[in-house]
């Protein structure tokens, strides 16, 4: 009998080991697949400033990285950036291509849009397989400078206020036991978080059901505190807070009669992890896993029935960022989770900036030398972007969100952290490390759930990676049932040098050409035949061609975890509004004077509604005013006419058939909302769609390529041109103009060494300079020189540099420049 029991126990032990070892293999396999194949992507967007005036430009650089390594992503090459209003409507969208770490872009803020809070959102198509709040979302503000009052939504941007703008009489308090649960007879730390209350610095006590004080706690400026508790059977606990001599009671979570706990101490250079259990078998067959953004960094399978163990890890072996430790019980269930933030000196980057002139005068040239090295002085590869803004008008704090805080912190935990830069202002600061650890206790890992990762079937992602532009669709029979047809297709790019591809559609009639990368519009000819393109059969062309939509529908707008715009210095906002008012006045005077000179008008006249309208239209263009302009506000009775008919109202323009002539020569360059198009794309456009039409010649037209005799620039009322498909009369053929990737405009940087520029209007830029992309190589001498001219404003300017190295280390650097 004893032998049978021993054999039985041995078999049970072997079976347990086999099952647990199988689970260990499963965990390592799934997390390996996640890191190598299913890794998420992250995007961070740096803007030149946090708020803008109507008529301003938003300049930005978008960084796209592998969400685990923070190196260049090998999945997507296309980034979508959207500007979204408070009604969740997308008012502008850019499609950008990058094959490096970053890409530049911009939005022009039209003066006729509604001021208020806006959302800047960026994502790849592949990122849509995750949650909507995993997309990059940043709040910006657009201010109406015509009003002298600070916008209400900026006054209310105070983290101490709740979403309704009212203060509750009773604080909202949440409790977060370390590891997840309280367990009887096991000591646990409990993080305490105060929300939506004016005073986040509260003091209180933990009391038992007999009103005995067990421990005390105090919350910090971020409304977070900590206490320690060892729960007992048949005993409940609550937190007691006294406010204005009134006691508020908050029950603590109930303790489990049996279970596991996981605690951690972060000492900076090392972390100490303690696992404990009150089960009869203790921690036997439990599995502790540590991962950083999905990459395994630690594992421990416990084979003995111990009730607790302690392990110590050297943080020098880890990367910077959030590291998650999960304890699985002997049934393979995740029972405890603990996050810790790692910040080691080995990952420090040295960005050096040297100015040619530390105290330049107004309109004086400044040159800066930039270098990027590791802590040992070796050159680093990477890309950075830089904004220089007037600190009298633009709030810039080191506690703000930046690329380092976003990639390493906010993008990996549930819920957003306000003023995250505070935790990185001082290196190796024990107090801030302690406060950041409290943040880790109150937030969970956001990127995946273990149960989903381990047990859900691996399905093909709904949204695919995008490498370029595709031209796709399907073909059907022209007559009869019009069923799908496996036809032969041919696509031709009608450029200077035509490019052609042939393809046979699938059995369902589907075809797909690409990926293609181009930044301009391209006229495309698409043909289909029943048999092939050599057949003389009269029925060979009886094919209908249907194109897929060129862009995906935008994802749903979810305003959780948005990086909030928090502004406390109303003086800076007031200064910004005053500067915007002055700039607008100067622009109006300058444009009015320019108009007088063009028309040889000598007498002065008061600014009229017409002048305001002219300024409004000029703000939509890159070139200001035009020598000849047709404003549809003056041709409302002709809004039913086509663009070709309207053009005949402009002196020197003749239209005939499907061609436009200027000086008896055909116009080869046509723009719609600054987007180059083919003449057939505007053939059926009517005045109902048009805001105004400009004719550009000479120097104004020279800034565009292939201008020939001049440029026709059409601006629509919506400001968003969609491609137009023109179907020929004959079957089996369509032609259209397809839109390429957006190319960022170049930031205007005046050159005051030029005498003509030096006579220009007064220069009061709030963004003194914007440099969207500075690329470093690993050459031994790897210094980049950036130069610009100061404006007419004597002020202190903030220099803000963000970027990332090729090895995945985020870069954040701020300094100042004084202009006398």
TrEMBL record:
Q: Which InterPro entries match?
A: Plug_dom_sf
Gene3D superfamilies in the record = 2.60.40.1930, TonB-dependent receptor, plug domain
What is this protein's record name?
TonB-dependent receptor plug domain-containing protein
């Amino acid at each position: 009998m004893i032998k049978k029991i021993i054999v039985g126990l041995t078999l049970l032990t072997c079976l347990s080991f086999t099952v647990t070892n199988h689970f260990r293999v499963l965990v390592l396999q799934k997390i390996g697949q996640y890191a190598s194949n299913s890794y998420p992507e992250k995007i961070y967007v740096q803007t030149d400033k946090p708020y803008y005036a109507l008529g301003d430009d938003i300049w930005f650089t978008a960084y796209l990285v592998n969400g685990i390594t923070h190196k260049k992503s090998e999945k997507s090459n296309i980034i979508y950036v959207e500007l979204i209003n408070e009604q969740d409507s997308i008012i502008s969208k850019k499609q950008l291509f990058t094959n490096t770490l970053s890409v530049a872009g911009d939005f022009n803020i039209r003066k006729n849009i509604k001021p208020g809070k806006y959302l800047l959102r960026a994502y790849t198509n592949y990122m849509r397989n995750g949650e909507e709040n995993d997309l990059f979302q940043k709040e910006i503000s657009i201010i109406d400078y015509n009003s002298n009052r600070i916008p209400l939504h900026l006054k209310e941007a105070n983290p101490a206020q709740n979403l309704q703008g009212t203060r509750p009489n009773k604080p909202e308090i949440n409790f977060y036991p370390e590891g997840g649960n309280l367990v009887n007879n096991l000591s646990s730390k409990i993080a305490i978080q105060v929300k939506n209350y004016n005073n986040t610095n509260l003091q209180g006590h933990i009391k038992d059901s007999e009103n005995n004080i067990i421990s005390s706690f105090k919350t910090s400026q971020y409304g977070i505190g900590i206490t320690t508790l060892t729960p007992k059977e048949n005993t409940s606990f609550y937190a007691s807070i006294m406010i204005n001599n009134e006691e508020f009671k908050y029950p603590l979570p109930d303790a489990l009669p049996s279970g596991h706990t996981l605690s951690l101490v972060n000492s900076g250079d090392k972390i100490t992890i303690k696992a404990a259990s009150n089960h009869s078998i203790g921690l036997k067959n439990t599995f502790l896993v540590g991962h950083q953004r999905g990459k395994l960094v630690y594992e421990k399978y416990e084979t003995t029935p111990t009730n607790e163990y302690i392990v110590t890890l050297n943080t020098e072996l880890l990367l910077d960022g959030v590291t998650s430790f999960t304890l699985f019980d002997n049934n393979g269930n995740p029972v405890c989770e603990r996050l810790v933030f790692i910040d080691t000196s080995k990952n420090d980057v040295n960005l050096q900036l040297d100015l040619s002139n530390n105290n330049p005068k107004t309109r004086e040239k400044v040159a800066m030398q930039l270098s990027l090295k590791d802590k040992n002085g070796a050159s680093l590869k990477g890309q950075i972007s830089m904004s220089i803004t007037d600190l009298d008008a633009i709030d810039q704090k080191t506690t703000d969100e930046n690329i380092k805080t976003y990639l390493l912190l906010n993008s990996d935990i549930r819920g957003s952290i306000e003023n995250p830069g505070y935790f990185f202002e001082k290196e190796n600061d024990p107090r801030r490390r302690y406060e950041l650890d409290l943040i880790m206790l109150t937030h969970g890992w956001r990127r995946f759930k273990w149960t989903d990762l381990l047990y859900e079937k691996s399905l093909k992602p709904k949204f695919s990676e995008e490498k370029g532009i595709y031209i796709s669709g399907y073909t059907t029979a022209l007559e009869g049932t019009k069923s799908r047809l496996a036809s032969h297709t041919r696509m031709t790019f009608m450029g200077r040098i035509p490019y052609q591809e042939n393809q046979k559609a699938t059995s369902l009639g589907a075809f797909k050409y690409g990926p293609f990368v181009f930044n301009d519009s391209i006229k495309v000819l698409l043909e289909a035949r029943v048999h092939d393109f050599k057949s003389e059969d009269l029925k060979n062309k009886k094919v209908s061609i249907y194109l897929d939509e060129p862009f995906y529908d935008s994802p749903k707008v979810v305003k959780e975890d948005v990086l909030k715009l928090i502004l406390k210095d109303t003086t800076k906002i007031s200064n910004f509004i005053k500067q915007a008012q002055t700039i607008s006045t100067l622009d109006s005077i300058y444009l009015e004077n320019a108009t007088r000179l063009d028309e040889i008008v000598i007498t002065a006249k008061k600014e009229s509604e017409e002048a305001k309208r002219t300024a409004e239209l000029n703000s939509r263009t890159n070139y200001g005013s035009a020598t000849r302009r047709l404003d549809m506000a003056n041709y409302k009775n002709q809004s039913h006419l086509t663009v070709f008919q309207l053009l005949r109202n402009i002196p020197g323009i003749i239209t005939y058939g499907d061609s436009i002539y200027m000086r008896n020569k055909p116009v080869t360059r046509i723009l719609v909302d600054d987007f180059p198009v083919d003449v057939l794309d505007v053939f059926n456009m009517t005045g109902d769609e048009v805001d105004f039409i400009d004719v550009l010649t000479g120097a104004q037209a020279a800034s565009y390529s292939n201008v020939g005799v001049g440029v026709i620039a059409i601006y629509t009322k919506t400001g968003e041109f969609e491609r137009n498909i023109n179907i020929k009369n004959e079957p089996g053929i369509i032609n259209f103009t397809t839109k390429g990737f957006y190319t960022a405009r170049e930031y205007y940087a005046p050159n005051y060494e030029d005498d003509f520029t030096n006579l220009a209007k007064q220069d009061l830029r709030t963004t003194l300079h914007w440099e969207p992309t500075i690329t470093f190589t690993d050459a031994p001498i790897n210094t980049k020189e950036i130069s610009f001219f100061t404006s007419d404003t004597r002020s202190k300017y903030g220099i803000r540099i963000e970027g990332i190295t090729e090895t995945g280390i985020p870069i954040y650097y701020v300094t100042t420049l004084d202009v006398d």
